[in-house]
Amino acid sequence: MASATVPLLDDDTIPFGEEDEMRDPSIAGQKYTHPYVTFFHLFFRGASIVIYMFCGWFSDSFITSFVFVVLFLSADFWTVKNISGRLLVGLRWWNYVDDDGKSHWVFESKNVSHALYQLLNDMINVTQSPSYQSRVNKHEQRIFWLGLILCPLFWGLFFLMALFGLKFKWLLLVMIAIALNAANLYGYVKCNYGASKDLNSAATDFVKTQLFKNAVDMMTKPNAAPPTNVRPTGVV
Q: Model-level pTM?
């Protein structure tokens, strides 16, 4: 009996870090270079919160509300993990299993930049090498991190309300939302500060950066000019 093998399709996925090369140069100067990605980054997680808050107005069925909220949470998790994080801030985290069955977590950042160079460039206009310049849209970056941080805070509030209200079936739904939101938040914080650092070392680096910035401000701050209208204190 003859058998035939079907050749695998060519992988046309854009390699990580080369999204900017594939972008249309005509939209480089716009305020939002990825408007649809930015919209759906907020839409799915915002919709899940709105449905959770007002689902009782439209349906008394817990199962229906549970299914719709979980669907939007799942769409949000997939979108943030695979699309918006990569395009809006140049970060990606993923997992693979090697031949020995060992799981590996990978946290990547395509923007190779040194905090010291960026800090000096912001304060005393030191020119950076082009290889260190970030091409991430600042408006989209701000929206990405605000959405990533604020939504888990809302779910944390819902968790306390369900816990003290003894609404245990809703508590299960809130815990699912917290788990999905926290996974993306932890993954991107890990990508942003480096896979080899924990949160304690990241906080330590932040404090060191602030101390260095204050020291440079003191050294580069122009001295106040002496007053020119000083009157003589003695009488001749």
A: 0.64
